[in-house]
Every structure is written in C-alpha cells, then in structure tokens.
Protein: Transcriptional regulator
Amino acid sequence: MLSWEERRQLVKTANLYYIEGMTQEQIAKKVGVSRPVISKQLQKAKEYGIVEVFIKDESLHTVEIEKWLEDKFQLKDVIVVPTAGGSPDISKKAVGQAAANYVSKKLKNVEKIGISWGTTLAAFVQEYPYERNEKIKIIPLVGGMGSKQVDIHANQLAYELAKKMHSSCSYLYVPAVIESEELKERLVNMNDVRSVLEEGRTVDIALVGIGNPYQPNSILKEVGYLKEKDIKEFREAGAVGDISSRFIDLNGNPIEHNINEKVIGITLEEIKKINLVIGVVEGVGKKDSILGALNGNYLDVLIIDEPTATAVLNL
Structure:
C-alpha cells in the first residue's frame, strides 16, 4: 500500500506531466530529482490506478482489429480501412487508396513488383500517385488475355501501374486458365511466357487479390473461366476462394481439382517464397476466402475494409 505522502507525490507528478504538459526533464528539475525517478513515478501512477490512459478516437477500433489479425496470423502489417456505411465502390476506392499509400512508401531497394488481377487491385492502380520510379519493373503474375473485363486483367494493371511510375512492364500474353493441361505445358515452355513467369517468381513485392467463386458477381464467372459445373465441383472439393486464380480450401491448401493445373501464372508455393506479399481485399462476401489465405500463410501484409476485417475476426 502507498502511504499518503507517496500517493500525493505520484498525483502531483502525474498532474504536471499529463495536465500541465511538462516534460519529465522539466519535472525532475522542478522537484529536485533525476529524470529516471520521474519516469518510475509515472509508471507507478499507472500501476496503482492513479492514471488511466484512454484513447478517444474512431480509429481505435480498427487499430485493435489490426493488432488481432497481426498476432493471430503472424502478419508483418495490417491496415484496416474504415468504410462503414459506404457503397461497395466507395469502399473499394478507400482500400485502393490505402494500398497505394502503403506501397508507395515501401519501394526502397525494390526492383520488381508483381501484380495479379481483380477489381480491388484495379482500384489500387487507379489511386496510385504519379511518381518517378524508372528503375522498377512491373510484372503480371497470372495470364488474362480475353475480351471481357480487360481493364482488370494483370497485363492491363501492370501497364497502368508502370505508366503511373514512369517505369516499364512485362506482358503475359496467355489466358489465366487454359482448356487442357497439355496445351498449358506447351504455352509455358514458349520463351516469352517462360521468361515472364521467371520474372514473376523473383519479384520483391507481390500484390494479390482474393476472390470468391460463389459470389453472384464473381469475375471468373463473368469472364467465362468458370462454368456452373466447376462451381459445383468446387463446393465438393471444399474451395473457399482463389489467389491469382489458384483455388484453396479454408485451411489454405490447394483444392484437388484440375483447374489448378490449368492456370498459367506463378504457383501458390512460389507466392509464399516472395519477400513481401500484400493482399488487397474488399467485400464481406470474401471473408471465408480471406481466412483461407491467412490460414495458408500466403500473405505478409493485409489491406482490407473494416466490415470485412470484422467478419473475418468473427469467424
């Protein structure tokens, strides 16, 4: 128990520090003790409940979710973007903007950036600022040639991001999903395709989206890569979503389905080997897909909207 005199001194020191705004050095001179003594008194004031620190800000809730996700899945970083009440388009734009700000500050010593495809990554590219990074090359991580939704394909996103950075890019002129494994083998052995895939394996940063094939607006269905027969087989195989068109179950394992063998792009194991993999995701409908990606340890950084992060937390 503290004596009355000790308690009075702790209250006095805390008042000078927290209310009057004096530094520990100034308080030490005023009271006639060393600065470490003041530091210990302030710590003691917290321990005895004399001082209670409250953070009053709407960002606190998102910071708590970020910390929980970081600790639970051993992530290097998590950014949860407050988007409550906004439309999906506004939410996607906000996540894209947060991702753009994050990536633009992580480019020291970066020579190659890999990018997958999807609407959230398209929002990231759209929000990315114009800046000069001539030495950085952008690499598509998966094929995507086709006539539908061309603006969100990896080639187009690589081109647009390179334009924003005043840099260069490669192109992977093949579909994301091939009709047969035999045709895929022939295509990946072509010099141009093989060289781009090799570049993709050696990028410093990979930007990936996460998809859910069961959503009504699934891009893979819209562009014609998936048929209803595939969706039924995915359910039976336990698929919850895809990363760069490679399908996984809730534990993050690749599903047993031949579609994973028909994809032209870097593999899930190759994604894991990349130094920094940043998942850019928006939409509560993807919560199971995101959990699968986290359980599989494919991501180092997660940038996500608050409602979806909360949904993942509740799982």
Notes: The CA atoms of residues 258 and 280 lie 26 Å apart.
